[in-house]
């Protein structure tokens, strides 16, 4: 390295060998004294490339991880979320431990209709208070980006029967639920389950939904909260509409709104 410093400080000196500019010839061996310098430079260059390559790999991995987290956060916030079914209230449409995906975008744009299966946050205390979950910064981060469910918020899944302005009653002479005077034939009901085991009569406020489970005698849905005045689900509490059962694989299927059930329901009477 002394030779490199000298050359840099004092300029390039002529040598005995015109074919080796910037170097000198050992008078005893005739070897080119610049060769070790060039080998040292090449060795240093290789070490530098290895170091740069290692840092580049780390940087690429970091970029991939950040992008993956960003995509997960955007998907969770604006597109889809995953949930599992913890009860039999929606049997047989959804069964215990089914994994479903929910369309978040549809809820945010206000496209929720009668017959949709919705997931909504339990802001009105329909569920018993859950025990405090153990958490840590890693879990909190994964919850934030949507890779784990939010342990601080409980959610429910039900089917929308009435929307804002609808008059929903049960039961007519045949024991069916009626919406705006039209009795519903509900093929999604759990086999043998009645449309309702007790009567009710409600008018849904604007911006709210009246929701029921498909397994009516195993679902603590809107009917059970009429007395407390918390029977309606707010639009703001709806996370999204369920559109696919993804797991287990033998139950994989897309969930469709049974529009024919509500096709003949008249528009709600407006005051």
TrEMBL record:
Family named by the database record: Belongs to the peptidase S26 family.
This protein's name: Signal peptidase I
Location(s) in or outside the cell: Cell membrane; Membrane
Entry-linked PROSITE patterns: SPASE_I_3
Lineage: Bacteria, Bacillati, Actinomycetota, Actinomycetes, Micrococcales
Record keywords: Hydrolase, Membrane, Protease, Transmembrane, Transmembrane helix
Superkingdom, natural source: Bacteria
Region called Disordered, residue ranges: 1-51
InterPro entries hit by this protein: LexA/Signal_pep-like_sf (IPR036286), Pept_S26A_signal_pept_1 (IPR000223), Pept_S26A_signal_pept_1_CS (IPR019758), Peptidase_S26 (IPR019533)
């Amino acid at each position: 390295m002394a030779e490199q410093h000298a050359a840099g400080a004092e300029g390039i000196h002529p040598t005995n060998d015109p074919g080796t500019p910037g170097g000198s010839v050992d008078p005893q061996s005739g070897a080119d004294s610049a060769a070790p310098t060039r080998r040292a430079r090449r060795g240093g260059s290789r070490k530098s490339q290895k170091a740069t390559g290692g840092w580049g790999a780390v940087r690429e991995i970091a970029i991939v991880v950040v992008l993956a987290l960003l995509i997960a956060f955007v998907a969770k916030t604006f597109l889809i979320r995953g949930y599992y079914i913890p009860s039999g209230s929606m049997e047989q449409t959804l069964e215990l431990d089914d994994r479903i995906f929910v369309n978040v975008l549809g809820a945010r744009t206000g496209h929720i209709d009668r017959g949709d299966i919705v997931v909504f946050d339990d802001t009105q205390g329909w569920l018993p208070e859950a025990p405090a979950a153990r958490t840590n910064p890693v879990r909190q981060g994964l919850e934030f980006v949507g890779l784990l469910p939010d342990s601080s918020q409980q959610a429910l899944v039900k089917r929308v029967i009435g929307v804002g302005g609808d008059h929903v009653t049960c039961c007519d002479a045949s024991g069916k639920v009626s919406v705006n005077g039209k009795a519903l034939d509900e093929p999604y009901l759990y086999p043998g389950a009645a449309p309702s085991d007790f009567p009710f009569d409600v008018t849904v406020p604007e911006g709210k939904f009246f929701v029921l489970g498909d397994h009516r005698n195993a679902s603590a849905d809107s009917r059970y909260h009429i007395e407390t005045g918390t029977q309606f689900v707010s639009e703001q509490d709806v996370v999204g509409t369920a559109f696919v059962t993804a797991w287990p694989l033998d139950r994989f299927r897309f969930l469709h709104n049974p529009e024919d059930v509500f096709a003949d329901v008249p528009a709600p009477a407006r005051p």
